Amino acid sequence: MIFSSPAFILLFLPIAFLGYFSLNRIRLVLASKAWLVAASLFFYAYWNVAYLPLLLGSIFFNFAVGTSLSPYRKSEYLRVSRRFVLAGSITANLALLGFFKYANFLVDNINFAFNASYVLPQILLPLGISFFTFTQIAYLVDSYRGEAKEYDFLNYALFVTFFPHLIAGPILHHREMMPQFESRWNLAVRYRNIVLGLFIFSIGLFKKVVIADTFAIWANAGYDGKITLDFFRAWGTSLSYTFQLYFDFSGYCDMAIGAALLFNIWLPINFNSPYKALDIQDFWQRWHMTLSRYLRDYLYIPLGGNRCSTVRAYFNLMATFVLGGLWHGASWMFVIWGALHGAALVGHRAWSGLGLRMPKAVAWLLTFSFVNIAWVFFRAKTLDEALRVLRGMADIDSLLYFPVVAIPTNDLAWGGWFSDYLLRWLPAGLAANLLCFGALALALGIISQNNSFELMTSGHGMAKLSGALLLFCIAMYFMMVTKSSVFLYFNF
Question: What stretches of 387-444 adopt beta strand conformation (E)?
């Protein structure tokens, strides 16, 4: 059950909403929270009930440890140093994540390096394990620092399992959610929040079902290795994935915020027009913002941040982004992608340190081009696959090839005299992929406008409701004629 499925939209979400506020209306506040926890656990178990005990065990363990770590709650059972308990509990969380996410990867690399033949049973990755593990590690650290001051198990379980963020984030802090779960102002139906929630949820649904899933067709066709990639087809492939990932993740973030708002909960903004960035640092302040915050607060700063020598600060940046790349998955391709971004940030910091600047248009084009090229390594399964796409992008010999033999009409997705006209005046690769490049131009125009959050916080309620209804109907039509794919970040 994904956010963009009829089962979620037409059944799960309305039932969860009605049950929660019905219990609140008769002042069964604890029962309403328990209902929401149960609904969230059902949402998680719907994917694979076998991993539900893993999630529950993680919640019980981390709540017990986090409570004992608090400097405000002295435990007579805690006979060792709090620092030791913190280190041990973080290690336990990372070991669990490492087993499920990296065990096969580690064994494969050992076999390759030492010509061995160790075999592990295939380990399936539990959905959302990276997100609920990182969320709870943040809770442990915040508790140790005295920044987590509320220790109610039901609230904690709701904090971890709340279904809008459980599978793919955002990565939350205990202190930004607990006051919302405790506030009595959030127990009643807020019609303004319903309008805002439906509006941004509908935008996200449209982004996912109509835009992202359309670009997925061209991206998958280019990366599956069955077609020859000339200049235009290779750029169409890479840019299609660049925009697929953008609208897929942006759509998920919008839908998560919208679903949470129905329950009067504001999730932190996780996506803020990253393709408008004018440098790579600006990009990471806009893309997956809660992950960037997490890496900064719990990895980069503890390594020393920039409060050290220049060389050491550069090392800290590289280490942070290499590990950030590896967080996305057990593959050297993610490591390469992370290293590329780390190197780009080092280069940007050196450039800025010299006081150098460039025109905004050039800065945007350079940043966007780098991000697009780096996504090739993020998407490709192997280095050969990535190099195949990059070689096609550099194939300038095919740039100005005009066909002598007519391209079949079905390849053009156009017909009649217009096809003949295109064949005379456009390069073959561009003519054959004109529909793709037209969609890319349209997508570029869309992201240059106000983003979902800006639209949500401006305009009148009725206009929002009308716009939401229109987008919702279009998206539902697309859902009926096609099958929406799983969100890309569910794989991480």
Answer: none
Q: Which two tokens stand for residue 321?
A: 């982004």
Number of domains the chain contains: 2
Q: Do residues 245 and 109 both lie within one domain?
A: no
Q: What pLDDT digit, counting tens, does each position of 431-485 carry?
A: 778 889 999 999 999 898 888 888 877 766 666 667 777 777 777 767 766 676 7
- Torsional class of 447: left (φ above 0), alpha (ψ -120 to 50), beta (otherwise): alpha
- CA angle at 444 for the pair 289 and 485, rounded to the nearest 5°: 65
Same domain, residue pair 227 and 355: yes
Is 348 marked active-site?
no
Region 199-225: what's the mean pLDDT? Answer: 90
Rounded average pLDDT over 71-78: 61
123: pLDDT strictly greater than 80? no
Q: CB count, 10 Å around CB of 433?
A: 25
252 in the same domain as 298: yes
71 belongs to a structural domain:
yes
Which of 165, 328, 341, 460 is catalytic? The answer is: 328
d(CA 325, CA 302) in angstroms, rounded, equals: 18
Question: What's the pLDDT score for residue 412?
Answer: 45
Q: Indicate the SS3 state at residue 264.
A: coil
The position carrying tokens 């967080």 is: 327
Least confident of 195-199, 242-246, 310-314, 417-421: 417-421
CA proximity to 65, closest of 51, 55, 54, 75: 75
pLDDT of residue 218: 93
Of 189, 211, 226, which residue constitutes the final position of a domain? 189
Confidence of residue 78 (pLDDT cuts 50, 70, 90): low
What's the Rg (C-alpha) of the chain? 24
Give 457-480 as a DSSP string: TSS-HHHHHHHHHHHHHHHHHHHH
Residue range(s) defining the domain that contains residue 204: 194-491
